[in-house]
Amino acid sequence: MARLIVAGEDHGLRPFIVWLNDGYRMHNGITSQKLPNRAGSRPIDHSKPRNMEDHFLSVIGRVTVGTLGLSSVVIPVLKRSVYVAGKYSIRRHVQGNDGKPTPIISFWTQQRLILHTLAQIAVFEPYTKKCIRQFMEPCTKSTVRHGVAATLKAVLNSATQSSLYSLAERCGAQGLFEYNHIIQGQLETRGMSIAEGDVLALCIRLASELLLGRYSLPAARDPSALLAHHEQGLFDESHNIIKNMTKGHRSPLVEAMGHRMAYEAAVEAGVNPNLLALYEAGVVLQDSSWYVQHAGLTREAQFENDSRALDACLPHLDHMLDGTEAKEYADSPLLSQEEWDRFTASLETFT
Protein backbone atom coordinates (compact mmCIF):
# COMPACT_ATOMS: atom_id res chain seq x y z
CA MET A 1 0.00 0.00 0.00
CA ALA A 2 1.25 3.49 -0.85
CA ARG A 3 -0.10 6.97 -1.41
CA LEU A 4 -0.69 7.73 -5.09
CA ILE A 5 0.36 11.25 -6.11
CA VAL A 6 -0.20 12.34 -9.70
CA ALA A 7 1.24 15.69 -10.84
CA GLY A 8 1.46 16.79 -7.22
CA GLU A 9 -2.17 15.88 -6.50
CA ASP A 10 -2.91 13.33 -3.74
CA HIS A 11 -5.13 10.50 -4.97
CA GLY A 12 -5.15 8.61 -1.64
CA LEU A 13 -3.85 5.20 -0.55
CA ARG A 14 -3.79 2.62 -3.31
CA PRO A 15 -2.59 -0.99 -3.64
CA PHE A 16 0.43 -1.49 -5.92
CA ILE A 17 1.86 -4.65 -7.48
CA VAL A 18 5.60 -4.70 -6.91
CA TRP A 19 8.09 -7.37 -7.92
CA LEU A 20 9.77 -8.43 -4.67
CA ASN A 21 12.00 -11.22 -5.99
CA ASP A 22 12.55 -13.56 -8.88
CA GLY A 23 12.24 -16.70 -6.76
CA TYR A 24 15.96 -16.79 -5.97
CA ARG A 25 17.04 -13.29 -4.81
CA MET A 26 15.42 -10.03 -3.79
CA HIS A 27 15.17 -7.18 -6.33
CA ASN A 28 17.29 -4.07 -5.88
CA GLY A 29 16.02 -1.85 -3.11
CA ILE A 30 13.79 -4.59 -1.63
CA THR A 31 14.49 -6.03 1.82
CA SER A 32 12.52 -8.92 3.34
CA GLN A 33 12.52 -10.08 6.96
CA LYS A 34 10.93 -13.31 8.20
CA LEU A 35 8.37 -12.64 10.92
CA PRO A 36 7.92 -14.95 13.93
CA ASN A 37 5.00 -17.39 14.04
CA ARG A 38 1.69 -15.68 14.72
CA ALA A 39 -1.25 -17.06 16.65
CA GLY A 40 -4.57 -17.88 15.05
CA SER A 41 -4.71 -18.78 11.37
CA ARG A 42 -1.56 -20.29 9.97
CA PRO A 43 0.05 -19.46 6.63
CA ILE A 44 -0.33 -22.10 3.94
CA ASP A 45 2.57 -24.54 3.83
CA HIS A 46 3.25 -24.83 0.11
CA SER A 47 7.02 -25.15 0.15
CA LYS A 48 8.70 -28.23 -1.25
CA PRO A 49 9.28 -30.69 1.62
CA ARG A 50 12.81 -31.72 2.52
CA ASN A 51 11.77 -35.38 2.67
CA MET A 52 8.94 -36.37 0.33
CA GLU A 53 8.23 -39.69 2.09
CA ASP A 54 8.07 -38.16 5.57
CA HIS A 55 5.83 -35.39 4.26
CA PHE A 56 3.43 -37.86 2.66
CA LEU A 57 3.21 -39.90 5.87
CA SER A 58 2.49 -36.74 7.86
CA VAL A 59 -0.30 -35.79 5.43
CA ILE A 60 -2.01 -39.17 5.89
CA GLY A 61 -1.11 -39.34 9.59
CA ARG A 62 -4.75 -39.64 10.66
CA VAL A 63 -4.89 -43.03 8.94
CA THR A 64 -2.81 -44.42 11.81
CA VAL A 65 -5.42 -43.14 14.25
CA GLY A 66 -8.05 -45.01 12.24
CA THR A 67 -5.91 -48.15 12.28
CA LEU A 68 -5.85 -48.07 16.07
CA GLY A 69 -9.48 -47.04 16.48
CA LEU A 70 -10.98 -49.59 14.11
CA SER A 71 -8.89 -52.38 15.61
CA SER A 72 -10.42 -51.81 19.04
CA VAL A 73 -13.93 -52.31 17.62
CA VAL A 74 -13.36 -56.05 17.17
CA ILE A 75 -13.38 -56.62 20.95
CA PRO A 76 -17.12 -55.91 21.45
CA VAL A 77 -17.78 -57.96 18.31
CA LEU A 78 -15.93 -60.89 19.89
CA LYS A 79 -17.78 -60.39 23.17
CA ARG A 80 -21.22 -60.51 21.63
CA SER A 81 -20.38 -63.47 19.40
CA VAL A 82 -18.85 -65.62 22.13
CA TYR A 83 -21.74 -64.74 24.44
CA VAL A 84 -24.27 -66.00 21.89
CA ALA A 85 -22.27 -69.14 21.06
CA GLY A 86 -21.55 -69.87 24.73
CA LYS A 87 -25.11 -69.45 25.99
CA TYR A 88 -26.41 -71.44 23.02
CA SER A 89 -23.98 -74.27 23.79
CA ILE A 90 -25.17 -74.35 27.41
CA ARG A 91 -28.85 -74.34 26.40
CA ARG A 92 -28.70 -76.67 23.40
CA HIS A 93 -29.05 -80.38 24.23
CA VAL A 94 -28.59 -83.50 22.14
CA GLN A 95 -29.32 -87.11 22.96
CA GLY A 96 -26.35 -88.87 24.53
CA ASN A 97 -25.31 -92.50 24.28
CA ASP A 98 -27.38 -93.27 27.37
CA GLY A 99 -30.47 -91.76 25.78
CA LYS A 100 -30.46 -88.75 28.10
CA PRO A 101 -30.23 -85.12 26.92
CA THR A 102 -26.67 -83.78 27.03
CA PRO A 103 -25.73 -80.09 26.64
CA ILE A 104 -23.35 -79.58 23.73
CA ILE A 105 -21.08 -77.51 25.98
CA SER A 106 -20.00 -80.83 27.49
CA PHE A 107 -18.18 -81.57 24.23
CA TRP A 108 -14.50 -80.61 24.13
CA THR A 109 -14.89 -78.99 20.71
CA GLN A 110 -17.35 -76.45 22.14
CA GLN A 111 -15.45 -75.88 25.38
CA ARG A 112 -12.07 -75.25 23.82
CA LEU A 113 -13.16 -72.67 21.28
CA ILE A 114 -15.40 -70.68 23.62
CA LEU A 115 -12.86 -70.62 26.46
CA HIS A 116 -10.00 -69.64 24.13
CA THR A 117 -12.10 -66.77 22.78
CA LEU A 118 -12.83 -65.60 26.33
CA ALA A 119 -9.10 -65.74 27.08
CA GLN A 120 -8.39 -63.63 24.00
CA ILE A 121 -10.92 -61.02 25.12
CA ALA A 122 -9.40 -60.92 28.62
CA VAL A 123 -5.95 -60.27 27.14
CA PHE A 124 -6.91 -57.98 24.27
CA GLU A 125 -8.78 -55.45 26.42
CA PRO A 126 -5.77 -54.37 28.54
CA TYR A 127 -3.51 -54.68 25.49
CA THR A 128 -5.69 -52.24 23.53
CA LYS A 129 -5.81 -49.78 26.43
CA LYS A 130 -2.03 -49.91 26.77
CA CYS A 131 -1.59 -49.29 23.03
CA ILE A 132 -3.87 -46.26 23.27
CA ARG A 133 -1.83 -44.86 26.15
CA GLN A 134 1.42 -45.37 24.22
CA PHE A 135 -0.13 -43.80 21.13
CA MET A 136 -1.23 -40.70 23.06
CA GLU A 137 2.13 -39.99 24.69
CA PRO A 138 3.44 -36.69 23.23
CA CYS A 139 7.01 -38.01 23.06
CA THR A 140 6.06 -41.03 20.92
CA LYS A 141 7.42 -40.73 17.38
CA SER A 142 5.05 -41.07 14.45
CA THR A 143 6.89 -44.18 13.24
CA VAL A 144 6.43 -45.85 16.63
CA ARG A 145 2.75 -44.87 16.64
CA HIS A 146 2.40 -46.61 13.30
CA GLY A 147 4.16 -49.69 14.68
CA VAL A 148 1.96 -49.84 17.78
CA ALA A 149 -1.24 -49.52 15.71
CA ALA A 150 -0.11 -52.01 13.05
CA THR A 151 0.89 -54.62 15.63
CA LEU A 152 -2.43 -54.29 17.45
CA LYS A 153 -4.36 -54.63 14.21
CA ALA A 154 -2.36 -57.68 13.08
CA VAL A 155 -2.93 -59.56 16.34
CA LEU A 156 -6.59 -58.68 16.82
CA ASN A 157 -7.52 -59.24 13.18
CA SER A 158 -5.88 -62.67 13.00
CA ALA A 159 -7.48 -63.86 16.23
CA THR A 160 -10.89 -62.40 15.44
CA GLN A 161 -11.23 -63.88 11.97
CA SER A 162 -10.23 -67.32 13.20
CA SER A 163 -12.44 -67.21 16.30
CA LEU A 164 -15.55 -65.83 14.60
CA TYR A 165 -15.33 -68.38 11.79
CA SER A 166 -15.10 -71.22 14.31
CA LEU A 167 -17.80 -69.80 16.60
CA ALA A 168 -20.23 -69.71 13.68
CA GLU A 169 -19.26 -73.27 12.79
CA ARG A 170 -19.82 -74.48 16.36
CA CYS A 171 -23.40 -73.18 16.20
CA GLY A 172 -24.09 -75.43 13.22
CA ALA A 173 -26.47 -74.16 10.57
CA GLN A 174 -27.68 -71.52 13.04
CA GLY A 175 -24.33 -69.78 12.83
CA LEU A 176 -24.92 -68.91 9.19
CA PHE A 177 -27.95 -66.70 9.86
CA GLU A 178 -27.47 -62.96 10.27
CA TYR A 179 -29.83 -62.70 13.24
CA ASN A 180 -27.33 -64.58 15.41
CA HIS A 181 -24.71 -61.80 15.08
CA ILE A 182 -21.68 -64.06 14.52
CA ILE A 183 -21.50 -64.24 10.73
CA GLN A 184 -22.46 -60.55 10.57
CA GLY A 185 -19.62 -59.70 12.94
CA GLN A 186 -17.20 -61.75 10.88
CA LEU A 187 -18.03 -59.85 7.70
CA GLU A 188 -17.81 -56.49 9.48
CA THR A 189 -14.39 -57.27 10.93
CA ARG A 190 -13.17 -58.45 7.53
CA GLY A 191 -13.95 -54.98 6.27
CA MET A 192 -12.13 -53.47 9.24
CA SER A 193 -9.04 -55.55 8.44
CA ILE A 194 -8.81 -53.78 5.08
CA ALA A 195 -9.93 -50.28 6.08
CA GLU A 196 -7.30 -47.79 7.30
CA GLY A 197 -4.47 -49.98 6.08
CA ASP A 198 -4.61 -53.58 4.84
CA VAL A 199 -3.14 -55.89 7.50
CA LEU A 200 -0.66 -57.63 5.20
CA ALA A 201 0.62 -54.33 3.80
CA LEU A 202 1.01 -52.95 7.33
CA CYS A 203 2.92 -56.05 8.42
CA ILE A 204 5.26 -55.92 5.41
CA ARG A 205 6.13 -52.30 6.09
CA LEU A 206 6.47 -52.69 9.86
CA ALA A 207 8.57 -55.85 9.77
CA SER A 208 10.87 -54.44 7.09
CA GLU A 209 11.49 -51.20 8.99
CA LEU A 210 12.13 -53.02 12.27
CA LEU A 211 14.57 -55.42 10.62
CA LEU A 212 16.37 -52.49 8.98
CA GLY A 213 16.69 -50.84 12.39
CA ARG A 214 14.88 -47.64 11.46
CA TYR A 215 13.07 -47.69 14.80
CA SER A 216 12.03 -50.14 17.49
CA LEU A 217 8.96 -50.95 19.56
CA PRO A 218 8.92 -51.47 23.35
CA ALA A 219 11.20 -54.39 24.22
CA ALA A 220 10.14 -57.42 26.24
CA ARG A 221 10.14 -56.84 29.99
CA ASP A 222 11.06 -60.50 30.54
CA PRO A 223 13.13 -61.81 27.60
CA SER A 224 13.06 -65.32 29.10
CA ALA A 225 9.25 -65.56 28.86
CA LEU A 226 7.96 -68.11 26.36
CA LEU A 227 6.25 -65.65 24.00
CA ALA A 228 9.19 -63.23 24.18
CA HIS A 229 11.51 -66.10 23.28
CA HIS A 230 9.32 -66.86 20.26
CA GLU A 231 9.35 -63.21 19.17
CA GLN A 232 13.14 -62.97 19.38
CA GLY A 233 13.53 -66.29 17.59
CA LEU A 234 11.52 -65.09 14.60
CA PHE A 235 13.50 -61.86 14.51
CA ASP A 236 16.75 -63.84 14.45
CA GLU A 237 15.46 -66.08 11.66
CA SER A 238 14.33 -63.06 9.64
CA HIS A 239 17.66 -61.28 10.03
CA ASN A 240 19.42 -64.37 8.70
CA ILE A 241 17.24 -64.70 5.62
CA ILE A 242 16.18 -61.07 5.08
CA LYS A 243 17.40 -60.94 1.49
CA ASN A 244 15.35 -63.96 0.45
CA MET A 245 12.49 -63.67 2.91
CA THR A 246 9.07 -64.40 1.42
CA LYS A 247 6.31 -61.93 2.07
CA GLY A 248 4.32 -64.49 4.02
CA HIS A 249 6.92 -64.50 6.79
CA ARG A 250 6.29 -60.95 7.90
CA SER A 251 2.80 -61.40 9.36
CA PRO A 252 3.84 -64.14 11.84
CA LEU A 253 6.77 -61.96 12.88
CA VAL A 254 4.54 -58.97 13.66
CA GLU A 255 1.92 -61.19 15.30
CA ALA A 256 4.58 -62.80 17.52
CA MET A 257 5.61 -59.35 18.69
CA GLY A 258 1.98 -58.40 19.31
CA HIS A 259 1.21 -61.58 21.25
CA ARG A 260 4.12 -60.88 23.57
CA MET A 261 3.03 -57.26 24.07
CA ALA A 262 -0.57 -58.35 24.68
CA TYR A 263 0.48 -60.95 27.23
CA GLU A 264 2.62 -58.43 29.11
CA ALA A 265 -0.21 -55.88 29.15
CA ALA A 266 -2.59 -58.51 30.54
CA VAL A 267 -0.13 -59.50 33.27
CA GLU A 268 0.30 -55.84 34.16
CA ALA A 269 -3.50 -55.42 34.34
CA GLY A 270 -3.90 -58.40 36.68
CA VAL A 271 -5.85 -60.69 34.33
CA ASN A 272 -6.82 -64.07 35.80
CA PRO A 273 -3.75 -66.37 35.64
CA ASN A 274 -5.85 -69.24 34.28
CA LEU A 275 -6.97 -67.11 31.33
CA LEU A 276 -3.38 -65.98 30.80
CA ALA A 277 -2.21 -69.58 30.72
CA LEU A 278 -4.97 -70.46 28.25
CA TYR A 279 -4.07 -67.52 26.00
CA GLU A 280 -0.39 -68.48 26.04
CA ALA A 281 -1.23 -72.12 25.26
CA GLY A 282 -3.34 -71.03 22.29
CA VAL A 283 -0.57 -68.82 20.91
CA VAL A 284 1.97 -71.64 21.27
CA LEU A 285 -0.24 -74.00 19.25
CA GLN A 286 -0.38 -71.47 16.39
CA ASP A 287 3.32 -72.07 15.73
CA SER A 288 3.71 -75.49 17.32
CA SER A 289 6.74 -76.62 15.31
CA TRP A 290 8.80 -73.59 16.34
CA TYR A 291 8.32 -74.36 20.03
CA VAL A 292 9.23 -77.99 19.44
CA GLN A 293 12.41 -77.00 17.61
CA HIS A 294 13.57 -74.02 19.67
CA ALA A 295 11.88 -74.19 23.09
CA GLY A 296 12.06 -77.93 23.72
CA LEU A 297 8.29 -78.04 24.14
CA THR A 298 6.99 -81.28 22.65
CA ARG A 299 3.61 -81.50 20.98
CA GLU A 300 2.39 -83.64 23.86
CA ALA A 301 3.48 -80.99 26.36
CA GLN A 302 1.79 -78.25 24.33
CA PHE A 303 -1.54 -80.10 24.26
CA GLU A 304 -1.19 -80.96 27.95
CA ASN A 305 -0.68 -77.28 28.83
CA ASP A 306 -3.70 -76.34 26.74
CA SER A 307 -5.86 -79.03 28.35
CA ARG A 308 -4.77 -78.05 31.87
CA ALA A 309 -5.66 -74.41 31.25
CA LEU A 310 -9.03 -75.37 29.78
CA ASP A 311 -9.88 -77.53 32.80
CA ALA A 312 -9.03 -74.64 35.13
CA CYS A 313 -11.31 -72.20 33.26
CA LEU A 314 -14.28 -74.46 32.48
CA PRO A 315 -16.02 -74.29 35.91
CA HIS A 316 -16.23 -70.50 35.54
CA LEU A 317 -17.54 -70.48 31.96
CA ASP A 318 -21.03 -69.13 32.67
CA HIS A 319 -19.64 -66.42 34.95
CA MET A 320 -17.08 -65.38 32.31
CA LEU A 321 -19.77 -65.19 29.63
CA ASP A 322 -21.82 -62.86 31.84
CA GLY A 323 -18.63 -60.91 32.52
CA THR A 324 -18.44 -59.86 28.86
CA GLU A 325 -21.46 -57.61 29.59
CA ALA A 326 -22.74 -58.46 26.12
CA LYS A 327 -26.22 -59.46 27.30
CA GLU A 328 -27.64 -55.97 26.75
CA TYR A 329 -26.42 -55.98 23.13
CA ALA A 330 -27.30 -59.55 22.13
CA ASP A 331 -30.85 -60.19 20.95
CA SER A 332 -30.25 -63.50 19.19
CA PRO A 333 -33.16 -65.96 19.41
CA LEU A 334 -30.62 -68.67 20.27
CA LEU A 335 -30.20 -67.35 23.80
CA SER A 336 -33.36 -68.89 25.28
CA GLN A 337 -36.16 -71.26 24.37
CA GLU A 338 -38.71 -68.49 24.87
CA GLU A 339 -36.90 -66.22 22.42
CA TRP A 340 -36.58 -69.07 19.95
CA ASP A 341 -40.31 -69.89 20.12
CA ARG A 342 -41.18 -66.22 19.67
CA PHE A 343 -38.80 -65.97 16.71
CA THR A 344 -40.12 -69.04 14.89
CA ALA A 345 -43.69 -67.87 15.42
CA SER A 346 -42.82 -64.57 13.70
CA LEU A 347 -41.55 -66.26 10.52
CA GLU A 348 -43.65 -66.11 7.38
CA THR A 349 -45.64 -69.31 7.07
CA PHE A 350 -47.01 -70.97 3.92
CA THR A 351 -49.73 -73.62 3.93
Structural summary, described in words:
Residues 74-210 form the Acyl-CoA oxidase C-alpha1 domain. One of its GO terms (molecular function) is acyl-CoA oxidase activity. The chain is mainly alpha-helical and 351 residues long. It has a single domain, classed as Butyryl-CoA Dehydrogenase, subunit A, domain 3. It contains 13 helices and 4 strands. It has a two-stranded antiparallel ribbon with strand order 1-2. It has a two-stranded antiparallel sheet with strand order 3-4. The N and C termini lie far apart (89 Å). The relative contact order is 0.12.
List its traits.
Butyryl-CoA Dehydrogenase, subunit A, domain 3, elongated, 351 residues, mainly alpha, single chain
Helix content: 55-70%
Looking at the overall shape, the CATH architecture is: Up-down Bundle
Question: What is the radius of gyration computed over CA atoms, rounded to a whole number of angstroms?
Answer: 29 Å
Described by strand count, sense and barrel closure, the largest sheet is: 2 strands, antiparallel
Strand and helix order: EEHHEEHHHHHHHHHHH
Q: Which class best fits the helix and strand makeup?
A: mainly alpha
| CATH topology title | Butyryl-CoA Dehydrogenase, subunit A, domain 3
Number of DSSP E strands: 4
Poorly predicted sequence stretches spanning 5 or more consecutive residues: none
Q: Quote the average pLDDT.
A: 89
Strand content: under 5%
Main-sheet strand order equals: 1-2
